[in-house]
Amino acid sequence: MASILQVKNIETLYYDIIKALRGISLDIQEGTISVVLGANGAGKTTTLKTIMGLLEDQPDKGTIEFLGRRIDGMDAEDIVNLGIAMVPEGREVFPELTVMENLRMGAYTRKDRRGVQEDLDRVIRYFPILRERASQQAGYLSGGEQQMLAMGRALMTRPKLLMLDEPSLGLSPILVREIFEIIKTINREGTTILLVEQNAKMALSVAHFGYVLETGRIVLANTPQNLMEDEDVKEFYLGIKSEVSGKGYQRWRRKKRWR
Ligand code: ATP
What we know:
The protein is of the alpha/beta class. It contains 11 helices and 10 strands.
């Protein structure tokens, strides 16, 4: 397997003083699903925004390579054209536009009409509800439908790497399962996925590799199986109380730092 995205020691500051990322490295393999777990404020969203070129003049340190090419410092639009798309936290669909207009916005720079139609068909195959809602204003969709629309819009750029920021946020357990099934299908059909999530159980159940982010640093990087056996991951991300004593105080201290 080859790397599709290599993030090396990136540091991102807000207002030159708030160190949101303190030297993060990720090596995302082509064709896989990778997940970054972390509590509120750990730096998950900042990681994705830094990769996507959405923060001005970022990163402050480190490098980002996509398919062997440096992308740190590039404009978001150029990064999209190279093949990365991001579904932001809270979906951010255009509420006044119809569902179909939102989907077409995803492809507005593309000239290959046939390709665009193929991708539209593909999106509708993943999310049939979007065809039913095609002429409705996106602002009136339910949270789950908006998540589907935001994913559909990102797919309309035909990304090689799809990044998703907390796709499960605010959705019912049934819808979360549905969204994750579709994420697996999108991946099986050839798109590499990088996911940031607080729903560790669901994310680890679909991922091939996982990272744990704590206050701007990667503290664990391992297979989902190994992460699920890690005492801290079990306790703080999966809600499983450990029977092993002795390490308790150390874990309690880390928990205080995480929350
Ligand atoms: P959440 O799940 O709550 O979005 P997160 O893991 O995605 O959390 P980030 O949103 O990346 O975390 O935030 C990382 C750190 O950077 C936090 O300390 C946060 O307060 C800070 N931060 C994020 N956005 C900004 C901003 N626009 N200006 C200043 N500080 C920010």
